[in-house]
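User: Here's a structure from my thesis project, written as structure tokens. My advisor, Dr. K., wants to see whether a designed sequence matches the one we expressed. Can you design one independently, without my sequence as a hint?
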């Protein structure tokens, strides 16, 4: 009598990789035992338990309908999706935009190909829907498939997932557990090992003991170079896919090609390619994306290898405030967010370089046996990502509250030795911020229609502030903008025009290829002054920031082509010119151009030139001296505060001020 198949159903979310994957690593001995010609090897054994009572592995990647619009997968146009549109709660924006949708599809397909190329009968199934619905359908389908004696033809040995932070992700886990337990199926949540510090090695036992200030957490881990555990090797073999696999649940149908999957993901988004903007950005001629990368583990590892061998990793600290180009930052954040690569894989690649092994021979820092400024800065940012994830665990749904988590982070609201206050106490705390909302009037009696108009101009890159407009056009068109630009954009929306920070967080969630729930929402809170920051937020001066980081005007001219013919130089003698800082002021804020110049450049009459959302009075004197900032609204007097943020950019606390590191993890 044939042995009844015993199947593990593995639901993948943000662990879309073969290497350094604890679940694939754990089950690989089953395949090795199946093949009598293959002996159990080191990479087959996990936790000393090579004998698993399973015969098959069914990996399933799910496009979750609560965060990704899946109506494009309907098998017939006349059908309606059983799920509500995947839109954000505050502004009603699509949760996942076209850039990340394509990246997700590429990542899943790359894993499917990598599994198939093992040549052992493994593979990946792709599904859409709520995760608990997908699991419920699979279990019920197998349960209904019975032989002539009424026995099930297969046994489901378990449903496995790797854990994720975020209130929505935790809800998915709870619902899936309930589905499996109702059917008597074992459910297991694995610790995801894509982080810098292993779950077992964090320096506290209870999440309530997580310091509310990043510096304290980081110092508890130093030296960072000694913290990560070894990455798990990529298995050479895996258990077979089941011979019979439940189909996608109706009314959806999964295409059999990557192009087909992309088309289904993009179809509902393409119904309105303006995404509600009256004047959406148009790609400027001659401008190239700083993030032209495909999703997937294969491409993540290629990118990592390039960063090491080119020296870009070692120069990261010196270049990370760049705005244009491919290698000023690592561009690994999207791969990290989706689990196409792990933080410890990045660490060990740098470690091998530092120890003089592998690529990069002859470069500065190679074989020194210690980290250099660049590799330390990368590790610093990887730990920051870890910290934001742990904040999500600690604060839960407060990560999405208009008051944020700030009321429990400030010294006057800390109790019991620094531990969190009770939720009821938190909810009683009044908001220290007065936001402008898109759907209702705020405390100041503002008009939500005008707020919506302001936000539309913000999203279109038509605020009248060059650095902000360049960044917002770039992110709309490419799904990426630099760390430096993100800080300024977030500060502009929340501090300069006062719009609810959650709208900005949702806009970035929609647009960013490298969106990560904990990092995105935690960092927007931080800048808005309702997060892990006792200083009530940061108000950047985007004119001074542009002068510091776009001194040649190349970035603004790349993404705001209307300003490309603004002359920036002055004559210094025969055949000699140099940048004139006073002329840069007209690039950074076009309203400052003389009327004749606006007329000659065709800028007269443009709303964002004639009527910017705010006017930032900033001037440079002779010899390059700079005046203090005076921020004014549109004829309505001064904004409260001078807004004079020092040009060294967005700083966290303590030692971070010295390190001059930004906040959004756009590595």
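Assistant: Designed independently from the structure alone:
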């Amino acid at each position: 009598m044939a042995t009844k198949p015993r199947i593990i159903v593995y639901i993948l979310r943000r662990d879309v990789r073969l290497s350094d994957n604890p679940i694939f690593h754990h089950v690989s001995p089953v395949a090795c035992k199946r093949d009598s010609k293959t002996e159990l090897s080191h990479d087959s054994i996990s936790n000393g338990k090579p004998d698993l009572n399973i015969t098959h592995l069914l990996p399933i990647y799910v496009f979750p309908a609560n965060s990704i619009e899946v109506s494009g997968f309907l098998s017939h146009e006349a059908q309606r999706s059983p799920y509500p549109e995947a839109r954000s709660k505050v502004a009603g924006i699509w949760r996942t935009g076209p850039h990340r949708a394509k990246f997700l599809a590429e990542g899943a397909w790359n894993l499917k190909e990598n599994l198939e190329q093992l040549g052992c009968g493994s593979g990946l199934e792709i599904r859409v829907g709520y995760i608990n619905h997908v699991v419920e359908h699979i279990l019920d389908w197998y349960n209904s498939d019975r032989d002539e004696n009424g026995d099930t033809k297969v046994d489901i040995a378990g449903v496995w997932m790797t854990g994720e932070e975020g209130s929505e992700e935790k809800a998915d886990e709870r619902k899936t557990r309930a589905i499996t337990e109702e059917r008597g199926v074992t459910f297991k949540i694995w610790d995801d090992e894509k982080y810098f510090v292993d779950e077992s090695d964090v320096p506290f036992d209870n999440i309530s003991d997580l310091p509310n200030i990043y510096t304290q957490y980081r110092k508890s881990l130093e030296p960072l170079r000694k913290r990560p555990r070894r990455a798990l090797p990529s298995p050479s073999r895996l258990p077979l896919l089941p011979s019979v696999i439940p189909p996608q649940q109706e009314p959806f149908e999964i295409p059999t090609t990557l192009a087909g999957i992309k088309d289904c993901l993009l179809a509902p988004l393409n119904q309105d390619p303006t995404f509600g903007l009256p004047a959406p950005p148009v790609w400027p001629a001659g401008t190239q994306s700083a993030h032209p990368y495909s999703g997937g583990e294969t491409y993540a590892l290629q990118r990592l290898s390039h960063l090491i061998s080119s020296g870009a990793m070692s120069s990261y600290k010196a270049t990370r405030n760049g705005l244009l180009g491919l290698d000023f930052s690592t561009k690994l954040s999207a791969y990290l967010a989706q689990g196409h690569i792990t933080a410890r894989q990045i660490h060990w690649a740098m470690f091998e370089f530092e120890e003089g092994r592998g690529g990069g021979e002859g470069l500065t820092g190679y074989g020194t046996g210690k980290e250099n400024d660049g590799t330390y800065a990368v590790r610093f940012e990887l730990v920051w990502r870890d910290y934001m994830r742990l904040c999500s665990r600690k604060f839960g749904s407060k990560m999405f509250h208009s008051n944020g988590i700030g009321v429990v982070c400030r010294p006057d609201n800390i109790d019991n030795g620094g531990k969190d206050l009770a939720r009821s106490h938190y909810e009683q705390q009044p908001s220290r911020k007065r936001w402008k909302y898109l759907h209702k009037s705020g405390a100041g009696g503002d008009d939500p229609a005008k707020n919506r108009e302001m936000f539309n101009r913000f999203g279109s890159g038509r605020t009248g502030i060059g650095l902000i407009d360049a960044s917002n056009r770039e992110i709309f068109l490419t799904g990426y903008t630099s760390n430096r630009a993100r800080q300024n954009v977030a500060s502009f929306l929340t501090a300069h025009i006062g719009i609810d920070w959650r709208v900005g967080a949702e806009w970035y969630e929609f647009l960013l290829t490298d969106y990560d729930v904990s990092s995105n929402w935690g960092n927007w809170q931080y800048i808005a002054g309702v997060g892990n920051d006792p200083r009530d937020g940061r108000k950047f001066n985007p004119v001074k920031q542009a002068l510091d980081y776009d001194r040649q005007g190349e970035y603004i001219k790349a993404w705001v082509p209307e300003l490309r013919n603004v002359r920036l130089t002055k004559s210094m003698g025969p055949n000699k010119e140099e940048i004139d800082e006073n002329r840069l002021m007209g690039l950074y804020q076009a309203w400052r151009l003389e009327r004749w110049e606006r007329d000659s450049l065709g800028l007269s009459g443009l709303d964002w030139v004639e009527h910017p959302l705010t006017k930032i009075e900033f001037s440079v004197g002779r010899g390059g001296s700079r005046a203090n900032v005076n921020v004014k609204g549109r004829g309505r007097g001064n904004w409260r505060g001078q807004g004079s943020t020092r040009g060294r950019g967005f700083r966290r606390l303590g030692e971070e001020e010295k390190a001059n590191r930004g906040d959004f993890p756009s590595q």
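When you compare it with your expressed construct, this may help: Residues 6-193+233-270 form a domain with the Rossmann fold fold (CATH 3.40.50.620).
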